[in-house]
Amino acid sequence: NILTLNLVVSSATKALTFYEKVFDGVRLDVYEFTEAIANNEANVRVGNVDLRLIDENAAFECFPPKQGEVDSIWLQMEVEDVEVTLKKAIDNGAKVTQEPDVFMGTKHAEIVDPFGYT
């Protein structure tokens, strides 16, 4: 079984690139319409979860998280090397919201991606 999360982002194609570079995402179907901005969609598999990245579109009241506001959803994943992944995330526009730390024997960090998701 594959879980698919639908995420509204400012740019589906830019978000696709972020998730490919930072989390070794595997590109799936991409629908890019150069003359129909706000209708693009990109699908990427990160681990065993598919992310359906959808352009924000005011006509359908689809908006990404607002900067500076706490979102009601966040993505949590285990990675092989927190420091390496964190550097890739920063290099690709993410902001660190929690520096690396160890809790109950597990090293973790927290970021907000360039599209507002934690």
Tally of DSSP β-strands: 6
Class derived from helix and strand content:
alpha+beta
Order of strands in the sheet with the most strands? 1-4-3-2
Query: Level of helix content?
Result: 10-25%
Principal-axes geometry comes out as globular
Key traits:
6 strands, alpha+beta, 4-stranded mixed beta sheet
Topology summary:
Elements lengths: L2 E7 L2 H12 L2 E6 L9 E6 L2 E7 L26 H10 L3 E9 L2 E7 L6
Parallel strand pairs: 1-4
Antiparallel strand pairs: 2-3, 3-4, 5-6
Would you write up a description of this structure?
It contains two helices and six strands. The mean pLDDT is 92. The strands form two sheets. It has a four-stranded mixed sheet, with helices on one face. Strands 5-6 form a two-stranded antiparallel sheet. A hairpin with a 2-residue loop joins strand 5 and strand 6. The protein is globular. It has helices at residues 12-23, 82-91, and strands at residues 3-9, 26-31, 41-46, 49-55, 95-103, 106-112. It is α+β, with helices and mostly antiparallel strands and 118 residues long. The chain starts with a strand and ends in a 6-residue tail after the last strand.
